[in-house]
Amino acid sequence: MNRIFIVYYDFSITSGNHAGMTHLVKLVSKQVQEVRPIKSISHNFRGGTLVAVIYACCLAVYFRFILKRGDKVIFFEYLTKGIAHQSLTAYLMRKLGITSPILALIHLSGDHLLELYGSKEKLIEKLKPIDKAVVFGSSLAKFIKSIGFEKEIVTTFHYADTDFYKPAANSKSQCELNVICMGGLKRNFRSLRRIIEAVPEIKFHVLMGKSELKPIFGDLKNVALYSYMSENDMFRLMKGCDASLSVLEDTIGSNVITSSMATGLIQIVSDVGSIRDYCSNDDSFLCTK
Fold it and tell me: 241, 174 in Cβ contact below 8 A?
């Protein structure tokens, strides 16, 4: 039986989340017997970066001895600079003579990748060891192709586990309109503040996660700020809201979008990046500057 090794990193902020990558790996592992998950070590401690680099090197050596003809390796957090160092493992695998197919799941926008790596040439260098790129969002697929990646690109979508995320059983009866704002990646919080100031009659619930947003929103009376909360608490809050507002600088889709859709929230989103892969004018409010 040909095996599929999935190398993933368990981010603490989304660990166990029913729209996160770790949960997806666990679901796939249960349903596909060929899958062999490999969890990268956490490096959120002093000296952790060095430990993570050493682990990435050791993982390449491990694959040199364990991989057989027909096996594949899928990296689930490729091109996330400083996290898990999966591009280093892929590079060393090729240097060690490993010819097994390497697939890479990439889920950061093109602009974000350029911010992290500095140039298109550097990105192409990091992509050389892989045989196939799997991307979230058509805009990212176009970007990867535009920088000169000539191998196969597969476009897929973010997901949400609909056994967990589902609309509230009862319709909301409150008179006040409640809007939830989630996520921190490529968000325009200054524009969000201006929107909130313009509609004082609407109640906004802003989830800060591990970001410090009190200096931006703390003085607004129609804003409730929430620090990091468990997924169950977040889901209860979502079910008490009417709409999800995402003011985006760029996006390839996200677990915020998919979980909000699964919960039945009205989508109010910036019309940027790959958002139209998920939302349309028939079911969402797509906003431009």
Answer: no
* Domain enclosing residue 96, as ranges: 4-156
Residue 59, token pair as written in the block: 């993982």
Q: Do both 185 and 222 map to the same domain?
A: yes
| Separation between Cα atoms, residue 231 and residue 286, nearest integer Å | 27
pLDDT digits (tens, 9 = 90+) for 24-38: 999 999 999 999 999
Question: Within this chain, do residues 199 and 110 fall inside the same structural domain, yes or no?
Answer: no
- Give the predicted TM-score (pTM) of the model: 0.90
Q: What is the pLDDT of residues 190-235, one digit of tens each?
A: 999 999 999 999 999 999 887 788 999 989 999 999 988 899 999 9
Strand ranges, E, within the chain:
4-8, 35-39, 72-75, 102-106, 132-136, 152-156, 178-181, 203-209, 223-227, 243-246, 266-270, 284-287
Do 41 and 130 belong to one domain?
yes
Q: What value, to the nearest 5°, has the Cα angle with vertex 94 and ends 91 and 97?
A: 155
- Residue 131 covered by a domain: yes
50 CB-near residues (< 8 Å, 6+ apart): none
What would the two tokens of residue 95 be? 């240097």
133: which strand partners? 104, 153
CATH number at residue 279: 3.40.50.2000
Residue 159 contacts residue 24 (beta carbons within 8 Å): yes
| 209 falls within a domain | yes
Q: Say if CB 158 and CB 254 are below 8 A apart.
A: yes
Angle formed by the axes of helices 138-146 and 110-117, nearest 10°: 50
**Count of structural domains within the chain:** 2
